[in-house]
Amino acid sequence: MSDLASAAFAAMLAAASTALFTDAQPPERFQSPAVFVLEVGTQAAIESRCQPLFGVPPAGMKTDACAAGGRVVAPNPCDFDSERYARMLCHEMAHVNGWPPTHGE
After folding, report:
1. Which distant-in-sequence residues (6+ apart) come within 8 Å of 50 by Cβ?
2. pTM for this one?
3. Separation of alpha carbons 72 and 93, rounded Å
4. What are the backbone dihedrals phi and psi of residue 40, each rounded to the nearest 5 degrees, phi first?
5. Beta strands in 1-105 (DSSP E)
């Protein structure tokens, strides 16, 4: 592989890794109601459930929540303001509805 191709490949991998860890607003088509199991846990529990599936977040970021297989793992809502928690659950519910982990369309 040429140096240019190697650099491009490395950049794509880095971008995909970072894209897995974002609080991006999901596209509207993934925001419909969904049935899922909500597991509320401590930060340590969230990391132990989410990181084997999605890896360790890039430096300066942490795993706040994740969704896989109809299950959302999230922190205690009592520890958050309601607006931030609503955005977090909207994001994870979108994954239950089929929004890819890479946050593309």
Report:
1. 63, 65, 66, 73
2. 0.79
3. 8
4. -95, 130
5. 37-40, 66-68, 71-74
